[in-house]
Design goal:
CATH topology of the largest domain: Rossmann fold
GO molecular function, one term: quercetin 3-O-glucosyltransferase activity
Radius of gyration: 22 Å
Oligomer: single chain
Enzyme class: transferase
Catalytic activity: 7-deoxyloganetate + UDP-alpha-D-glucose = 7-deoxyloganate + UDP + H(+)
Bound molecules: uridine-5'-diphosphate
CATH superfamily of the largest domain: Glycogen Phosphorylase B
Number of strands: 13
Number of helices: 20
CATH class of the largest domain: Alpha Beta
EC number: 2.4.1.323
Family: Belongs to the UDP-glycosyltransferase family.
């Protein structure tokens, strides 16, 4: 069935992210970039995330300047109080893959996703984690559909080798061998990728495990998509983007999207602008005032994104490590960061005293602004892809403490390939934390400052006029207008 009976001169693009902070945020930035280019955009979000964006951001005002920008919502299939942090995020993907297809089809057919001027969706950009169901609907209705992957290209490349890895993993993990042994089945990474650097879905004793299987399946589906959009840039990941062409011949690398959007907004307004925030938590800006009173490059910013949960003992080890390093720190402790069974929040008084002296704790920070602040000299991060890109653009070296999914591989690339920091992988020991913080902030500072400054320069150049990401975005818009790609 072909849906578009009436020709539309302006494309209406549907953008449909997996409803989680790290997916909604970059895809909303892309949506805004497309709206700035004059396309009509419909952003389809889960009710749960949409309501949080309305509550915690100025999103409604921000997008009111694009009269043809529509927000629409869809149920993620989970009860409102279902946990959506930690390993529970997988539930969202399973639930949507199971239940959303008929609802999406109905919304498209009935014109609920269009406006009077552009009633029908003529192009779809959907989250690659949705695998085949958005592609099935698009194919049936004759709408070109492109997949957007919010992970790094290097990680996405490794996902294509999960079927090959399966047998090795079973043999290996059952024998509980050395996690530092090199993995040989991911081309291009043979010399540095260890078992402990594989995406967390590989840490299973049984590869019939749901998340391992799901990643394999949805990755393979992307080969059916009209094209692939990646939030990365060629100077950082060009070699793996080139390899991905084997599976996905049409790739648009248009990142880092936050820098891209900031650049185009500044171009338009001719003044420096405030970064567009797409946060799902209440941001506490008091930390910016605190940073204003700290010496340059003296503070290590600590944040583990929107999903990581940890045990009380991990929290205490990290905390002692930071305090014992004697460096200043700004730490984001989300209210839902501690695992449920570790609900007791009492901490040793000596930690609280030291924190009052040279630390600051907030429940959520304006991260882009924090990283850009001259007082921040390092970032202890979970290596989520957005945080990694934000740190790269700000030229801030990282200590990586990955939690799950692509974070294990990102952290390996940060330390071994790009040389932008240190990988603390799998360790939560106060002595190691203390040593790494001192290495990053003092002992090896010079070495990291050099490499991070150079990568920041390249990241900014690629979103400037004539840069690779800038040109790729222009091409994407052009292809959507022509409906050719
Ligand atoms: N973030 C923020 N303030 C915080 C913590 C996180 O604004 O206190 C933002 C951060 O800037 C990034 C996103 O939340 O854009 C987290 O995405 P990422 O991919 O790094 O990790 P995830 O939350 O998906 O694990």
């Amino acid at each position: 069935m072909e849906m578009n009976q009436r020709p539309q001169t302006i494309p209406r693009v549907l953008i449909f992210p997996m409803p989680a902070q790290g997916h909604v945020s970059p895809m909303l930035k892309l949506a805004e970039l497309l709206a700035m280019s004059g396309l009509h955009v419909t952003f389809l979000n889960s009710d749960h995330i949409h309501n949080r964006l309305i509550k915690y951001t100025d999103m409604e005002t921000r997008f009111s300047k694009y009269p043809e920008f529509l927000f629409r919502t869809i149920w993620d299939g989970l009860e409102e109080d279902h946990p959506r942090t930690g390993e529970s995020v997988w539930d969202i993907i399973f639930s949507m893959n199971e239940k959303t297809k008929p609802v999406l089809r109905e919304m498209l057919v009935s014109g609920q996703l269009g406006s009077g001027a552009t009633p029908y969706v003529t192009y779809m950009i959907t989250d690659g984690l949705f695998g085949g169901f958005t592609l099935d609907v698009a194919e049936e209705l004759g709408i070109p559909c492109v997949h957007f992957r919010t992970t790094s290209s290097c990680c996405f490349w490794s996902y294509f080798f999960f079927p090959l890895l399966a047998q090795t993993l079973i043999n290996y993990l059952h024998r509980n061998e050395d996690m530092d042994r090199l993995v040989t089945s991911v081309p291009g990474m043979e010399s540095f990728l260890r078992f402990r650097d594989l995406p967390s879905m590989c840490r299973v004793s049984d590869t019939t495990n749901k998340s391992f299987q799901m990643i394999s399946q949805v990755t393979n589906q992307t080969r059916r998509a009209r094209a692939l959009i990646l939030n990365t840039f060629d100077d950082l990941e060009g070699s793996f983007v080139n390899r991905l062409i084997e599976f996905c011949p049409n790739i648009y690398t248009i990142g880092p999207l936050h820098a891209h959007l900031n650049h185009r907004q500044a171009q338009n307004s001719k003044t420096s602008t405030y970064p567009s925030s797409n946060n799902l938590y209440d941001i506490d800006r008091s930390c910016l005032t605190w940073l204003d009173s700290q010496p340059p490059n003296s503070v290590i910013y600590v944040s583990f994104g929107s999903i990581v949960v940890m045990t009380k003992s991990e929290l205490i080890e990290l905390w002692y490590g930071l305090v014992n390093s004697k460096q200043r720190f700004l730490w984001v402790m989300r209210p839902d960061m501690l695992m449920a069974e570790d609900g007791d929040r009492s901490v040793p008084a000596e930690l609280e005293d030291a924190t009052r002296e040279r630390g600051f704790i907030v429940s959520y920070a304006p991260q882009e602004q924090v990283l850009a602040h001259s007082a921040v000299g390092g970032f202890l991060t979970h290596s989520g892809w957005n945080s990694t890109l934000e740190s790269i653009v700000a030229g801030v070296p990282m200590i990586c403490w990955p939690y799950f999914a692509d974070q294990q591989i990102n952290s390996r690339f940060v330390s071994e390939v790009w040389k932008l920091g240190l990988d603390m992988k799998d360790v939560s020991d106060r002595k190691v934390v203390e040593m790494m913080v001192n290495d990053l902030m003092v002992e090896r500072r010079e070495e990291f400052v050099k490499s991070t400054a150079e990568m920041a320069r390249l990241a900014k150049m690629c979103v400037n006029e004539g840069g690779s990401s800038y040109c790729n975005l222009e091409k994407l818009v052009e292809d959507m207008r022509c409906g050719t790609k």
